[in-house]
Amino acid sequence: MRESLYRIKQLAQKLKMPEQQIQRYEAENYRAVIFETLIRIAKVLKIDLEKDAVVRIEY
């Protein structure tokens, strides 16, 4: 758990957003993420969206 919180803190710092926001994004039932933010997070985590991502959109 401690290591997980450290990673959240690092990610939040790199994205210049509060740690609590990162924790909200991680919540399984959280549904309101701006697509641009997802792209920023993917870049920080070095995820190749063209190669590695699967997107599911629910209305």
TrEMBL record:
It comes from the Bacteria. It comes from Nitrospina watsonii. Residues 9-53 form the HTH cro/C1-type domain. SUPFAM superfamilies: lambda repressor-like DNA-binding domains. This is HTH cro/C1-type domain-containing protein. Pfam families: HTH_3 (PF01381).
